[in-house]
Amino acid sequence: MVFGSVAREYARYRPGYPPEAVLWAVGRGSGARVLDLGAGTGKLTAAVVAAGHEAIAVEPDSAMLAELASEVPTADAVAGSAEDIPLPDGSVDVVLAGQVLHWVDPDRAYPEISRVLRPGGVVAGLWNSDELRWIERLGGTDGTDEEFDWRGFFPTGLFTDESHRSFANPRPHTVDSLMSTIATHSRFLVLDDAEREKRLSSVRSALIRGLRDPDGEFEVRSRTYVIRATKR
Ligand SMILES: C[S@@+](CC[C@H](N)C(=O)[O-])C[C@H]1O[C@@H](n2cnc3c(N)ncnc32)[C@H](O)[C@@H]1O
């Protein structure tokens, strides 16, 4: 599994999700039964629980799931995947997936998501903007991310009323903390050790070159992008 080798670092450094994004994605303030699909170490699960919902976390990677169980002990943590969700038909009000839907097999995952949702239930994909792109733009622009436009994301045979919104999710960082975050991105995890070190070192140099004060703290103006739809 790609992320399991850095499960601890993932839990420590990766961004969470703003409460307003979770509120908009779920569609109500508390009391929903929410499946967090591909829950990883529980970043989104924690936000779901904090809002007062019942959370079921499904995750295929055992190291990530172990981290989740200690980070969010009140969630129901279950091994499984988007293509094979270990839940009964119509058993959840909402399915959320944080930075996951680009990993799934859409032909198998979307019918599964529809199956576990109750009639009229909601599915939402959430993505935090990419820190590496933020660094790439530091030299040229103001470092903000561009708008995200994935209209027509969910298959219309299964889902309707698709809508999109983004939410500010700023984070304070130092060069070291931002580099530790970037080192948990899958594009680096799939490289061999020497190549990973070489690429991370060149990203670090670009970051230092782009910052006014590389020894201080700075704000990464990330956003959380949400695509939401209703089960037909
Ligand atoms: C980028 S991480 C996101 C984790 C967490 N949702 C978050 O927001 O921090 C992607 C997660 O998706 C999981 N994953 C990969 N393929 C999956 C699949 N087919 N079904 C469900 N989860 C999957 C990975 O194991 C990993 O934990």
From TrEMBL:
Swiss-Prot/TrEMBL keywords: Methyltransferase, Transferase
Gene3D superfamilies reported for this sequence: Vaccinia Virus protein VP39
This protein's record includes keyword Membrane: no
Residue ranges occupied by any Methyltransferase type domain in the UniProt entry: 35-123
InterPro entries in UniProt: Diverse_substrate_MTase (IPR051052), Methyltransf_11 (IPR013216), SAM-dependent_MTases_sf (IPR029063)
Region forming the signal peptide: none
Annotated GO biological process: methylation
Family label: Belongs to the methyltransferase superfamily.
Descriptive protein name: SAM-dependent methyltransferase
